[in-house]
Design a protein that fits this description.
There is one protein chain. It is built from 5 helices and 8 strands, in the order αβαββαβαβββαβ. Helix content is 28%, strand content 25%. The chain is of the alpha/beta class and 159 residues long. Strands 1, 2, 3, 4, 5, 6, 7 and 8 form an 8-stranded mixed beta sheet that branches.
Length: 159
Amino acid sequence: MAQEMKARAKFVQDTLQAQGYSSQVVELSASSRTAQEAAQAIGCQVAQIVKSLIFMTKNTSRPVLVVASGSNRVNEKLLGQLVGEPIVRADPDFVRQHTGYAVGGVAPLGHPEPLLTFIDSDLLQYEQIWAAAGTPFAVFQLTPQELQQMTQGQVVSIS
């Protein structure tokens, strides 16, 4: 981090500190927009990458955050059952409006308002996991327990 941290990454770092987490945001020289890119840049398994995915309920247009293991796909029908109405993948404008982040850099915290959140149960098997930190080039390490605490999410099987 020789250069000053980018604004959104600094926001995530400040939010982590304000909420009492010791995690440090790391800015990478390679993109971490996809789970595969992030795992390669960090040197961890793809499954240890936290994908923050935003969905929208079809009937009420509510945002739903799914924090999924990088190796898993979300079963949208199952997610819709958990939410209580059908869901669709949100478009980039909806994602930015409800999270404050662009697709590829959505952090699991620091959103303008609390989001209904589901946590992939597969993430709980790891001691350390990595999440996006506001940009496609920034990440931070955390534990599954910290992820649960910061998101107040419900742990479920997402696939």
